[in-house]
Amino acid sequence: MMQRWNKKRTHFPLIILILLVFIVCSILYIESSIRQIHEDSDHVRHDQEVPISHVKPNLPKSAPKDLDRFTRCNSTSKYSGWRNGWADPGENSGRRSVSSESCDVFSGKWVFDNTSYPLYNESHCPYMSDQLACHKHGRFDLRYQHWRWQPHNCNLKRWNATEMWEKLRGKRLMFVGDSLNRGQWISMVCLLQSVILENKRSMTPNAQLTIFRAEEYNATVEFLWAPLLVESNSDDPVNHRLGERIIRPDSVLKHASKWEQADILVFNTYLWWRQGPVKLLWSTEYNGACEELDGLGAMELAMSAWADWVASRVNPHKKRVFFVTMSPTHLWNREWAPGSEGNCFSENTPIDWEGYWGSGADLPTMRMVDKVLGKLSSKVRVLNITQLSEYRKEGHPSIYRKFWETLSPAQLSNPSSYSDCIHWCLPGVPDVWNELLFHFL
Question: How many whole angstroms separate alpha carbon 62 and alpha carbon 8?
Fold first, then answer.
């Protein structure tokens, strides 16, 4: 009996070992099977998207009617997965061409310079916006006007208004986008207008399109309100604060009809995509049935429709196209001063932490934009203003502004609720964006 028991004991560890090997092999097999299932499903989904989910953007006269602020969705469903199958720029285009310059002008630091800056006086620009005229509306610390962007290993081309006009002679320079791009346009007009005689310049507001003209140079500097790039119900430059944002994700043709004759185009879009879900009303939909998608996904659709227009319509030898990356916000000062509770109000110096990145600049959005622009090769020059603007927490209007009405005493005493930490005071940060544009022109 004891001998039989000893024989069983000698086999017992071997049985345990075999069982453990079997369990490990089973787990590895299951994990491998799951991975294979995901790969197979991804492959099937990719194969199925081509005939089912890709649509050709920017088909002329395909939409039943233009969107406006009165447009409504008759119904809303989940996003179907349709994608814009935009034009391939060509096999030889590759990624964006690498600049031959030895210096990255977007990498540097802000240097206080009260000798050369500001490049113009706020009160001397008759086209200044009350929303951006911070000194006029009570900001007496003017240090924000005296910062110069200094790249690490080189110098930016020094601003020269007359030279810029010569670059623009006989041409149309158009900024297209949202209120941040409008701020850059106002900055450009203020930078340029002083060398033009008063009776030889004019500003012609035309609702969605506003034009500054210099007769001597037969040139215009224009702004087109198109905050989402594609056609939307928010295209009215005044009445665009709507509860439901609706876009045609596959069409820029309404806006392109206004911008296509410009010689130099400066585009931006970003802020409006961060305000919640977006309704999609495809150009082929005649019954008002919308789909809903998150802001980043909707922005990617819009960028693809815009990229299709660039890829198929832009000859880089005849037309210059620039895309301005996202302008960061500074809504929570705890991000650069841990333990603080506030925003950009009362800030008076830039952030000196190199590489600082706050929540006002979204990395997934930057990666998506880079992916889209990367396919456009040399047709688009990127003005990467995001990192350099991240440092300028003190450059926003805060409470020193007028938006329709001047802030009331009660609002002025509550900067945590009424500070504008999105737009930029002028003179200020957008002037540097335009110096970068001048540098590349």
Answer: 82
DSSP annotation of 291 reads E
Compute the distance between CA of residue 293 and CA of residue 278 in angstroms, rounded to an integer. 5
The pair of structure tokens assigned to 386 is: 């995001």
Strand boundaries in 14-135, DSSP class E: 54-55, 75-78, 83-84, 108-112
Paired tokens of 118: 């500001």
| Reported confidence tier of residue 90, pLDDT bands at 50, 70, 90 | low
Kindly list the catalytic residues. 179, 420, 423
Nearby residues of 186 by Cβ (< 8 Å), 6 or more positions away: 127, 128, 129, 132, 426, 430
Report residue 32 as tokens. 């491998």
Query: Residue 379: beta bridge partners?
Result: none
CA pair distance 226, 259, nearest whole angstrom: 11
* Residue 246 phi, psi (nearest 5): -120, 135
**Cα-based torsion angle of the residue sequence 351, 355, 361, 364 in order, rounded to the nearest 10 degrees:** -170
Amino acid at 232: S
**Strand-pair partners of 223:** 175, 210
- Per-residue pLDDT of 161-201, as tens digits, reads 999 999 999 999 999 999 999 999 999 999 999 999 999 99
Calculate the alpha carbon distances from 78 to 141, 242, 293 in Å.
Answer: 50, 21, 7
For Cα atoms 84, 285, 259, give the angle at the middle one, nearest 5 degrees: 55
DSSP state of 157: P
382: exposed, middle or buried (Cβ count in 10 Å: 0-12, 13-18, 19+): middle
User: Taking a C-beta distance cutoff of 8 angstroms, is the pair 438, 164 a contact?
Assistant: yes
To which H or E segment does residue 75 belong? strand 75-78
Q: Which residues contact 178 (CB under 8 A, 6 or more apart)?
A: 225, 227, 268, 269, 270, 271, 272
**Could you write out the three-class secondary structure of 231-278?**
CECCCCCCCCCCCCCEECCCCCHHHHHHHCCCCEEEECCCHHHHCCCE
Q: What's the predicted TM-score (pTM) here?
A: 0.86
396 vs 415: CA distance, rounded Å: 12
Please calculate the CA angle 398-385-129 and round it to the nearest 5 degrees: 40
**Band (49; pLDDT cuts 50, 70, 90):** very low
Q: pLDDT at position 267, please?
A: 98
**What whole-number distance in Å separates Cα of residue 37 and Cα of residue 429?**
51
